[in-house]
Amino acid sequence: MRHKRVLPLAALALCTPALAGTAPALAAPRTAPAAPSTPLRILLTNDDGYNAPGIRKAFARLTAAGHDVTIVAPLTNQSGTGTKMAGAATINVRHPEPKVWAVDGTPGDSVAFGLAEVFEGSAPDLVVSGTNFGPNLASLATHSGTVGGAVAALEYGVPAIALSTGGLAVPDPVATVNAMDPTLDFAVKLIDRLRSRARSGPLLPQGVGLNVNHPVVGADGKGAARGLATTFQDPQSPLRPEYTDAGDGTWKVDVRLSTRPAAKGGDVEAVSADRIAISPMNADWNTGPADFATTSALLSGLRP
Question: Taking the model in full, what pTM does it have?
């Protein structure tokens, strides 16, 4: 299966200076129409598993915001599976509680099953994938199951948002889980913004999704982000596996974090400055400057 890159690097040269340089400051707030009162029907997935803290917090927060949320997510942790879909002759699915489906497969398998069966005949208004424990920045997004779940939705023509919580550092478990709360508070604001701008149309331009990375701010993770930016996927690969031959045909694998200076205007730069990074993405690798402009316009005036 192919892997997803949030932005082809060749497109960067075509971006306007504000987008190609330092992560842009958003325009001054302006009054937007009130969000429609009709709740959205949301398919909620992830790659950490259907019972992980991030997806359960997301379910509670989005439901409290008035949305009709259904979890269709992997039965087990599927981190790092990217856009993989199993393609098996059979698939095991559990329905352990109302509004929850657990699919013994990848995030892509979960979304495909959810759209075909759980939402049969009436696609959801939005697929939300996450919030992920840890970041999906730079090349991590390429291999992310969280992003892969959102990409699967885009391939079926359904608007999608990937949500992640964390930065390029070894995550503190408590702080990261705490930071999921401001991540989801922002997600509710973002969805309300998309609803108000969309009016009676689709929430996002056809084929375009959003990869949202929220920083962990403060030692306890409860701090507020210092703004947001429309970004691209930083081209660096921060994880470096090292292999040691055991001499018996097996190799010990040690994965180390090795970062380079952040690219100007990229997702790593934004999150490293405690800003929320929002990168437009799609399923066919052709995200370009028009999608940056559209995304920036949608987010204009939005605050964490």
Answer: 0.83
